[in-house]
Amino acid sequence: MLSLENVDSYYGGSHILHGISLAVREGEVVCLLGRNGAGKTTTILTVMGYLHPRRGTIRFKERDIGGLPPYAVARLGVGFVPQERGIFPSLSVRENLTVFARNARSGYWTLQRVFDLFPGLQARERNLGFQLSGGEQQMLSIARALMLDPVLLLLDEPSEGLAPMIVKEIVDVLKHLRGKGMAILLVEQNLRVALAVADRHHVMNKGEICFTGGSEELENSESVLRSYLSV
């Protein structure tokens, strides 16, 4: 579904990503873990086209997307849930969803299916974005990405700053999406969330991948947990 091969990425003159290679298969959840500044968000932004790779290739369903603008990447079937959520505060929940649906590819996700997955949003569909709690805003951000009917979903720290009950709801949603066959690339610092939903993990440090493995391997790798995740 998605592959990165030897990708280098920069912010201006600052070299951030150094030869990143990873893949996400159909129906698979892959997690990027690491401390702040490790390069996780930069990886996601480079895939989405907010940053252009200086070296290497990014392929989505065998098509080279490196250098495409974000709107073009989204139209190919890539959904993005940014760390800052990015909902429209002056629009209602329903309006936030239907605005995105105007540019959607025809497919599985409809407004009613999104409300079935997020019943709390349907209960507040007339509330404005700024009237929602942090957890509700995060749910809306995920729901809005689904309205584009993506086949690959990129999420940047969806559990950050949320209460444990809301984090559990997000984990349940991600498990549901995985069960529907959606490919997911997840940036996360919450190790429990990562272990609960991801099939494979890449631990990043200083713009490089320093560990790749499954959940059991990661849990049993004391040196990785201690050195790169502070666990």
Describe the structure.
- This protein is an alpha/beta fold and 231 residues long.
- It is 37% helix and 26% strand.
- It is built from ten helices and ten strands.
- α3 (93-101) runs parallel beside α6.
Specify Rg, calculated over alpha carbons.
17 Å
Low-confidence segments: none
Biggest beta sheet summary: 6 strands, mixed
Q: What is the overall shape?
A: globular
Provide the CATH top-level class of the domain at 1-73 and 189-231: Alpha Beta
What proportion of the residues form beta strands (DSSP E)?
25-35%
Global structural class: alpha/beta
Strands, count: 10
Order of helices and strands: EEEHEEHEHHHHEHEHEEHH
- Order of strands across the biggest sheet? 6-7-8-3-9-10
**Could you state the CATH homologous superfamily of the domain at 1-73 and 189-231?**
P-loop containing nucleotide triphosphate hydrolases
Topology-level CATH name of the domain at 1-73 and 189-231: Rossmann fold
Specify the number of helices: 10
Portion of residues within helices: 25-40%
Question: What is the mean predicted local confidence, pLDDT?
Answer: 90
Name given to the CATH architecture of the domain at 1-73 and 189-231 = 3-Layer(aba) Sandwich
CA distance, first residue to last residue: 31 Å
